[in-house]
Amino acid sequence: MGAPSAAFRLVAIAANTNAAKLARQILSLRPAYAALADPAALPQLRELLGGAASGTRLLAGPGALEELACLGEVQCVMAAIVGAAGLASTLAADPPASAAARQQGVAGHGGARC
């Protein structure tokens, strides 16, 4: 992602484990929320940010991406998560698709319900 745009507002950004790259993106883009799928990377992210991103709420762990997808202010979700790793958060972003997937026996990890 490049510089912030007047055409849209970035609400949240996430990464798997790369705390250094996520910290740079947080400082550049200033999202309201940021998440790491790997909770072990959160201390490094906090250290890299110091107090420079007090306006960004940090989340981590298996349900963090689903939580971002369900935020009330989110109108559009863009995901670039390969394979089954992205299934739960993608389905959480679209509750009707999530319900259909559950009916067909497609399982995430249990995920959030928007």
Keyphrases for this structure?
three-stranded parallel β-sheet; alpha/beta; disordered C terminus; single chain; Rossmann fold; 36% helix; 114 residues
What does this structure look like?
There is one protein chain. With 114 residues, the protein is of the alpha/beta class. It has a domain at 12-80: 3-Layer(aba) Sandwich (Rossmann fold). It contains five helices and three strands, in the order E-H-E-H-E-H-H-H. The chain has a three-stranded parallel beta sheet. Helix 1 (19-29) links the parallel strand 1 and strand 2. Helix 1 (19-29) crosses helix 2 (42-49) and helix 4 (87-93) packs across helix 5 (95-103). The chain is globular, with a radius of gyration of 14 Å. The two termini are 26 Å apart. The model is unreliable at 97-102 and 106-114 (pLDDT under 50).
N to C succession of SSEs = EHEHEHHH
Q: Count the strands?
A: 3
Structural class, from helix and strand content? alpha/beta
Average of pLDDT? 78
Helical run tally: 5
Q: What is the secondary structure topology, with strand pairs?
A:
Layout: E1 12-15, H1 19-29, E2 33-36, H2 42-49, E3 57-60, H3 64-69, H4 87-93, H5 95-103
Parallel strand pairs: 1-2, 2-3
Brief characterization of the structure:
This protein is of the alpha/beta class and 114 residues long. The protein is built from five helices and three strands.
